[in-house]
Amino acid sequence: MGVAAGLLTRSRWAILVVPVVFAVSFEIARIPVDGPTVDTAHFSTYGVFALVVGRGFHALLSLLPMAMGAAWGALAQARRHGHLHAGRGRSVLRWTAVTASVVLLLGLTIAVARSSSTAQITGADGRPVPASIAELTSIDVNGHELGLMIRGHDTANPVLLFLAGGPGGSELGAMRNHLPALEEHFTVATLDQRGTGTSYPALDPTDTYTLQAAIADAVATTNYLRSRFGVDRVLLVGQSWGTILGVLTVRHEPTLYSAFVGAGQMVSPLQTDRIFYTDTLAWARTRGQAGLATELEEIGPPPYTSMLDYETALSYEHEVYPYDHTGNSEGEGGFSENFLVPEYTLVDQVHLLAGFMDTFAALYPRIQDVDLRRDAPTLEVPVFFVQGAHEAPGRAEPFSQWYAGLTAPTKELVVLDRSGHRPLFEQPDEFVEFMTTHVQPAIR
């Protein structure tokens, strides 16, 4: 489009006008669309992230090449019609700019074209383990293409389906960085749910993404794994939001699952958020954070219709409930390390943040009435819970109440001493030990 505009107009103004016209047309066309990355920009932390990974990234991939193309087209026409009469110095400068733009566009193209991959599972001799599996794939789940990473040393091992937190979280990187030992004992399938990571395009249409749709997706993925590996039952593991989804899934289809494992178990999103709100407001007042306290008082307690209000109420967890992270894996590496793995393309990495915001905004308001104390007082499969000793009260208190009254064939809880909300990644060795010494024997 840029080259054509430059050739037709024969004017350097096309470098500016064509991208602007395209951007304005694009924005007008998507006025009816809602979501953090397409809404009016806000200059909060979440707002800046939404601007960068939404409009910013799209501008990099479309408007920048369009402007370059317009420049090339206009330059070609000027050269063709003999309108380039500048001195040698300006000519050298002009062609240097053209060369630089070509290099920049080529580099961008190479970066975007980089494919994803996952390393083979090899033995001591460096060769692939004969019965192992290591693949990145996508499967058709209720009309949506969802990304799935499957890894294991022996496909005869029990099949484990992992559901990440969020809504909107993707944990391919965390599973690769922190839990490779789990692959020695299980065939581990890590699902990118709708609107997350490699499944970001599957978010649309957002009005169809409900709690029941998420449960149906988990069931469909389970049936794919059952068929693929010839097993009757799958072990289901969830973290954070994935624990709510996991509990409701096994309650809906208990015959498909050998057991459920919840790590950082959630029970009631609404009560959790209200406890966070109350504690954050009290913390802001005692710490002299008058601006934050005023902002919290103005928005009031959850639930909210705007994700930016959730940013205000929920973004201070580590300041309100501090603990020493240096003794665990997540604390040493930091969450950002989980983005930088070959299992994600560059576009996937950008979509990790976009997916968290857009998917959270689409689904989180629809799970506000979930309360496992009411919705899942009994489960028909063995259940195991791995909690962190430093879990925030907003999650720990509802869990304790639910766990005390929960009825299941087997019910077991372990608390890891150095962990918070992500115990499977913060203390992976202890998590794998629990999985192999407590969970695996119970599902044989």
List keywords for this structure.
Rossmann fold; alpha/beta; eight-stranded mixed sheet; 444 residues
Describe this structure in words.
- The chain has 444 residues and is an alpha/beta fold.
- It folds into 2 domains: 112 residues, no CATH class; 261 residues, Rossmann fold (3-Layer(aba) Sandwich), CATH 3.40.50.1820.
- The protein is 50% helix and 12% strand.
- Strands 1-2-4-3-5-6-7-8 form an 8-stranded mixed β-sheet, with helices on both faces.
- Helix 7 links the parallel strand 5 and strand 6.
- Helix 1 packs across helix 2, helix 3 packs across helix 13 and helix 6 crosses helix 7.
- It is globular.
What composes the largest sheet? 8 strands, mixed
CATH topology name of the largest domain, in short, is Rossmann fold
Q: Classify the oligomer.
A: single chain
Give the proportion of residues in helices: 40-55%
Q: Nearest-angstrom radius of gyration?
A: 25 Å
Classified by CATH, the class of the largest domain is Alpha Beta
Strand line-up across the major sheet: 1-2-4-3-5-6-7-8
Cα distance spanning the termini: 61 Å
Helix and strand pattern: HHHHEEEHEHEHEHHHHHHHEHEHH
- Mean pLDDT, rounded to whole units? 92
Q: How many DSSP H or I helices?
A: 17
The SS-based structural class is: alpha/beta
How would you describe the shape? globular
CATH architecture of the largest domain: 3-Layer(aba) Sandwich
- The unreliable regions are none
Number of strands: 8
Superfamily at the CATH H level of the largest domain? Alpha/Beta hydrolase fold, catalytic domain
Strand content: 5-15%
User: How many domains?
Assistant: 2
